[in-house]
Amino acid sequence: MNKRLALMTVAAVAVLWTGAAQAQEQAINLYSARHYSSDEKLYSDFTKATGIKINRVDADDAGIIARLKAEGAASPADVILLVDAARLWRGEQDGLFLPVKSAALDAAIPASLRATPVADGTPWFGFSTRARVIVYDKTKVKREDVDSYEKLADPVNKGRLCIRSGSHPYNLSLFGAVLEHMGPEKTENWLKGMVANMARAPKGGDTDQIKGVASGECGVAVTNSYYLARLMRSGSPEDRAVTERVGVVFPNQSSWGTHVNVAGGAVARHSKNVPGAVKFLEYLASPDAQNHFANGNNEWPVAVGVKFDNPALKAMTAGKPFKSETIPISAVGANQVKVQQMLDRVGFK
Ligand code: FE
Description:
This protein is an alpha/beta fold and 349 residues long. The protein folds into 2 domains: 28-128 and 260-314, 3-Layer(aba) Sandwich (D-Maltodextrin-Binding Protein, domain 2); 131-259 and 322-346, 3-Layer(aba) Sandwich (D-Maltodextrin-Binding Protein, domain 2), CATH 3.40.190. It has 15 helices and 10 strands. It has helices at 3-21, 39-50, 61-71, 85-93, 103-108, 169-182, 184-197, 206-215, 225-232, 237-244, 274-284, 287-295, 311-316, 329-334, 336-346, and strands spanning 27-32, 53-58, 79-82, 97-98, 125-137, 161-162, 220-224, 246-249, 260-268, 300-301. Strands 1, 2, 3, 4, 5, 6, 7, 8, 9 and 10 form a 10-stranded mixed sheet that branches. It binds fe (iii) ion. Residues 83, 224 line the site of fe (iii) ion (FE).
């Protein structure tokens, strides 16, 4: 944990102690894996609209799940936001979420983007989606050589591939989806082929892979769509220059479709402020908050009937809808362990 995180954690605990003595319903404790600074406005708008303050603890998905388990019934968490469908599934399996009955959430969030309802409600809801796309060096690489995930392992791309760690949730979910589409034998061979094609050992985040393509170090790379959109819309000329050499592909348009991941949220199992927590989730499904996901963090909103206008997202898809895969999130979640074992066997760091 770095110093800032530690301080924030200490601050959050301090707020909890003093908060308990004050009106409890006027604050919620949010454990968030959304690491996007543009979300500050999302939270302050909620407080402005409802008077409910948000005490936020930031960590990654795995850190949040570990912390909730360690805290058990004593956990001060009211709301949990995670940025990966498989982790949402994991949290549900581990009983960390309190199922919610909300007509507003049921009406707004499509059934395919929320957990399967159980007797006492729905354990979690997706609020935005992001595609895992392929970017490539337009000056060196042919688009048709990188228009599917399978081709990342093709010998034509030897020495070209840059990708973050295989064990990162974004990649584990992609590989878990591929396992569902191709079966174990082909998937392991595919992972082996990608290792053989790497321009460098996996390092950095998705933005670093895009920059690797722009600098010429990488011919092809994998990134979540919003990192590219962020560079395209950046106020900094250097950021925008990065995107000039970079082409983008929504992979597998002629087969099973592009892998799409979900960021979503849930009420914490041991929340002491369930009404406040539900109110926050309902706010995330509102047109204002949904527009924030589209324009603040360049994700696709999911709520039914929400209109949005994001020039970068439009440019990336040439204004047309793209084909996304349709497989159950539970299958992707259940594949994570198998995929990690394959990564270890083929030496994918
Ligand atoms: Fe991210």
